[in-house]
Design a protein that fits this description.
The chain is an alpha/beta fold. The chain has a single domain, classed as Aldolase class I (TIM Barrel, Alpha-Beta Barrel). Helix content is 30%, strand content 19%. It has eight helices and eight strands, in the order E-H-E-H-E-H-E-H-E-E-H-E-H-E-H-H. It has an eight-stranded parallel sheet. The radius of gyration is 16 Å and the shape is globular. The relative contact order is 0.16.
Length: 214
C-alpha cells in the first residue's frame, strides 16, 4: 500500500503582514501547516512565537518546528494552543534521558513529538530515541532561512531511516519544489515542507499539487 504524502506549507515564507489571508490561500489544498520558531541563537534569525499562533485561525494541524537553543523552555506555550505536533533539534538536546523527557512532555501535552537533524547530523546520533518519536525531520538545508538550495546528500539518511523504521513518518524541509519533491518521496519521505516554492507561486493550488505523487 502506497504511503500517503502530506504537504506542509511553511508560513516562514508567507507575507507576515497578510498572514491570515496567506494561510487561507493554502488551507484547502494542504495537509499540515508548519510554524518555524527561531530564537536568534540556535539559528541567526527570529520568527514566530505563541502569540502569533494564538491569533491565527486555521483548520489545518499546526506543526511547530522549534529551532531554538532550549526547547524545554518553549514547549508549554505551544502545547497550550493545542498544536498537533512539536519537533525539536537533536543538536541542542544531548543525552537519552533529556531527549526522552522532552518527548514524554510533548506526548503528555497531547501532541506528537519529532526530532530534527541538521544536514551534517547522522541518524545514528538519535538511535537512542528513534523508537520513541512520531516523526523524523531531515533538514535538506541549513536551518534558519527560507529559499535555500536543496542538499541531495541528505537523502541517504532518509533511505536509512525508511529501511530501519518503515512505519516512522519522515519529514523533509528545505528547498522542496516539484523536482526535489520526487527525489524525497522516492527516498522514503512522506511529509514535505515547502515554503518559498508555494508562497512565491502565482498559482498556489498548482504548486501544492505538483509536490504530490503523480
Amino acid at each position: 500500500m502506497a504511503r500517503k504524502i502530506l504537504i506542509t506549507p511553511s508560513i516562514l515564507s508567507a507575507d507576515f503582514a497578510r498572514l491570515q489571508e496567506e494561510v487561507e490561500s493554502v488551507e484547502p489544498y494542504a495537509d499540515w501547516l508548519q510554524v518555524d520558531v527561531m530564537d536568534g541563537h540556535f539559528v541567526p534569525n527570529l520568527s514566530f512565537g505563541a502569540p502569533v499562533l494564538k491569533s491565527l485561525k486555521t483548520k489545518l494541524p499546526l506543526d511547530v518546528h522549534l529551532m531554538v537553543e532550549n526547547p524545554a523552555e518553549r514547549i508549554d506555550e505551544f502545547l497550550a494552543l493545542k498544536v498537533r505536533h512539536i519537533t525539536f533539534h537533536a543538536e541542542v538536546v544531548a543525552g537519552t534521558k533529556a531527549r526522552k523527557d522532552l518527548i514524554n512532555r510533548i506526548h503528555k501535552g497531547g501532541a506528537s513529538a519529532g526530532i530534527a537533524l541538521n544536514p551534517e547530523t547522522p541518524i545514528d546520533d538519535i538511535a537512542d530515541v528513534l523508537a520513541d518519536i512520531d516523526l523524523l525531520l531531515v533538514m535538506s538545508v541549513q536551518p534558519g532561512f527560507g529559499g535555500q538550495k536543496f542538499l541531495p546528500e541528505v537523502l541517504s539518511k532518509v533511505r536509512q531511516a525508511r529501511k530501519e523504521y518503515p512505519k516512522l513518518m519522515i519529514q523533509m524541509d528545505g528547498g522542496i519544489d516539484a523536482t526535489t519533491a520526487k527525489m524525497c518521496i522516492e527516498a522514503g519521505a512522506d511529509n514535505l515542507v515547502s515554503g518559498s516554492f508555494i508562497f512565491r507561486s502565482s498559482d498556489r493550488t498548482m504548486a501544492i499539487a505538483s509536490l504530490r505523487p503523480s
